[in-house]
TrEMBL record:
Domain HTH tetR-type: 11-71
DNA-binding region(s), chain positions: 34-53
Protein name as it appears in the record: TetR family transcriptional regulator
Pfam families xrefs: TetR_N
Entry's Gene Ontology molecular function annotations: DNA-binding transcription factor activity; transcription cis-regulatory region binding
Organism in which the protein naturally occurs: Microbispora catharanthi
Membrane spanning stretches: none
Superkingdom: Bacteria
Length: 230
């Protein structure tokens, strides 16, 4: 459905407030900027800010919904015959090559991480974001494989995938914060990521493949889909 004018204006206003807030947070630190200062800089009222963002932390983490749903979405939208790990691997390298923000390997990610480390409130929210991301991925894996309610496999697989992504993201952030240029870091991260995803492939690589066109049923845990005879 095409976005209406009212919805578009609301989205643009929200993005403008978030962009202005992030500029202030990165410049001065999260705890050193008030919501009132963000409102003044954005030329809106404090109430307007809170109409779009429930908390000050939401202003900083304005993409939290996208971040929490990222891995689950990648799995939901995986290609025919592609397993969960294969889908995440492909998306990770696409983001890495493009310098996209979604895995935290973009220009300026180091300052973002530094601001999180300076704020106890942000650290708490980021930890919860990680928990929610892992839970969403696990629930998606459970749905996609028709897992039994007492089957822990989706949660075990989700934990392994999320742990690998966290380790790679953390390594990138540490080196970028040490002053290294992002380009050579990304080249090294590619090697680390290849090894990480190879390990995942050997362990859980056959888990949750999307059925090929013509497949009779959705494969269960660890099974590859088999096309019906033509």
């Amino acid at each position: 459905m095409e976005e209406g004018l009212r919805e578009r204006k609301k989205r643009e206003t929200r993005q403008r407030i978030a962009d202005i807030a992030m500029g202030l947070f990165l410049q001065r630190g999260f705890d050193n900027v008030t919501v009132a200062e963000v409102a003044r800089a954005a030329d809106v009222s404090v109430n307007t800010v809170f109409n779009y963002f429930r908390t000050k932390e939401d202003l900083f983490l304005d993409r939290s919904e996208e971040t929490e749903d990222l891995l689950a979405r990648v799995v939901r939208e995986r290609r025919a015959g592609e397993s969960a790990v294969e889908a995440v691997r492909r998306d990770f390298f696409e983001a890495l090559d493009a310098g996209d923000w979604r895995y935290g390997m973009n220009e300026g990610a180091d300052l973002f991480v530094q601001r999180v480390r300076e704020s106890v409130a942000l650290q708490s929210r980021v930890r919860m974001l990680d928990v929610n991301r892992e839970d969403r991925l696990a629930r998606t894996l459970a749905e996609e494989t028709d897992a039994d309610p007492d089957d822990l496999t989706p949660w075990l697989v989700s934990a392994q995938i999320c742990a690998a992504v966290r380790a790679l993201t953390r390594h990138f952030a540490i080196r970028q914060m040490a002053g290294e240029d992002p380009a050579p870091i990304r080249a090294d991260i590619r090697e680390h990521a290849e090894r990480a995803f190879d390990l995942l492939e050997r362990g859980v690589g056959g888990y949750c493949p999307r059925p090929e066109p013509g497949s009779l049923s959705r494969p269960r845990a660890g099974e590859r889909s088999t096309p019906t005879p033509r």
